[in-house]
Amino acid sequence: MSLSAQKLRLKAMMRQNYQHLSSRELDFLNKNFLSMRKQAALFSGFLVVTVTNLVVPEDTGRSLKAVYFLVLWSALAAGMVVLVNTTCLNVWGPGLALRGQSSDSIVSAVNGLRAERPAVLSAFGLCIFCFELVAVAVSWMIMEESLALATTIIIILGMSYTTYCTQRMHARFRIDNLDKIRFENDLRELIEDAES
Q1: What burial class does residue 43 get, using C-beta atoms within 10 Å of its C-beta: 0-12 exposed, 13-18 middle, 19+ buried?
Q2: Nearest to 140 by CA among 45, 61, 71
Q3: Contact partners, residue 42, CB within 8 Å, separation at least 6
Q4: Is 65 exposed, middle or buried (0-12, 13-18, 19+ CB in 10 A)?
Q5: pTM (whole model) above 0.85
Q6: Of 37-51, 75-89, 102-116, 155-169, which gets the smallest average pLDDT?
Q7: Cα angle value 117/123/129 (rounded, 5°)
Q8: What would the 3-class secondary structure string for the chain be?
Q9: Please, how many CA atoms are within 13 Å of residue 128, restricted to the half-sphere of its CB?
Q10: What are the tens digits of pLDDT across the range 9-60?
């Protein structure tokens, strides 16, 4: 086999391996979005049940009602953002990867899904935060003050611990930008090295 044929074979193998890695990342991102979609649907279902079944007592103050309805609708809106965005991402991302015009369509799909993650995570976090605030508002509307105070403290402690754990896990599993593997750059360098 000639040297040029070996170079072509090597480049083809590198591209194939790169496509395989991109496919695995596409699958990883899709599973993450699917998980968030299911959880957001669960939260949204609880919120709809709250809206349809909770009878706000007549003696509830106007400001407490306002807080209740504002955080309830904010949580529901954020949950719907997560549901719609993750559904679109799970349909259109793999669609581009499988039916795109170029051989790099899978790379474009993976990069697009990566770029959309922060927006989805932010909406998901807002949904959870507002869901917790709905629970606080409900406790103040239907419970005695001492019990409402106790449940508020429990919810605040739970939110604080969740935030602490999230930050701890993020720090543990975080990959610095300098340490991230950039398959595109590595592939380009390997091809350039093979051609020289």
Answers
A1: buried
A2: 61
A3: none
A4: middle
A5: no
A6: 102-116
A7: 130
A8: CCHHHHHHHHHHHHHHHHHHHHHHHHHHHHHHHHHHHHHHHHHHHHHHHHHHHCCCCCCCCHHHHHHHHHHHHHHHHHHHHHHHHHHHHHHHHHHHHHHCCCCCHHHHHHHHHHHHHHHHHHHHHHHHHHHHHHHHHHHHHHCCHHHHHHHHHHHHHHHHHHHHHHHHHHHHHCCCHHHCCCHHHHHHHHHHHHHC
A9: 16
A10: 777 777 777 777 888 888 999 999 999 999 999 999 999 998 899 899 999 9
Contact 67, 133 (CB under 8 A): yes
- CA 82-86-87 angle, to 5 degrees, is 115
